[in-house]
Design goal:
2 helices, mainly alpha, 121 residues
């Protein structure tokens, strides 16, 4: 019968390799969990951002119809021009505010994603 013998150095090298493999596996699992969580947050973010954009579109449509109704009831062309001018000014201000709001959301989502990926436990 042949007896298999190994040297202490070979056993130590095998133990070291096993420990390194275990540590790498743990790190890969942690990275996978982080990416999965980030993916879930991205999906939530997309939904939240989409809803915010829909809310803004709804508000803009409401304001447009209100201006059209007011123009339809105007007494003369000067009043129509005033209504149109007021609407365009207000819509420009709304557009700036809405762009700022969406930009702030996107920036905060980006920061969250970077923090989540670079977070040290």
């Amino acid at each position: 019968m042949t007896k298999s013998t190994t040297t202490p150095e070979a056993d130590a090298a095998q133990d070291t390799a096993t420990k390194m493999a275990d540590k790498m596996t743990e790190q890969m699992k942690a990275a996978g969990d982080t990416l999965r969580k980030s993916g879930e947050r991205i999906a939530e973010t997309g939904t939240e951002l989409g809803m915010r954009l829909l809310d803004q579109a709804e508000a803009n449509t409401r304001e447009a119809f209100a201006a059209m109704r007011a123009a339809a009831h105007a007494k003369d062309a000067a009043e129509v021009m005033r209504i149109q001018s007021d609407y365009l000014r207000d819509q420009g201000n709304r557009a700036i505010e809405q762009a700022r709001e969406i930009g702030t959301l996107i920036t905060s989502y980006g920061r969250e994603a970077i923090d989540r990926v670079t977070k040290k436990d």
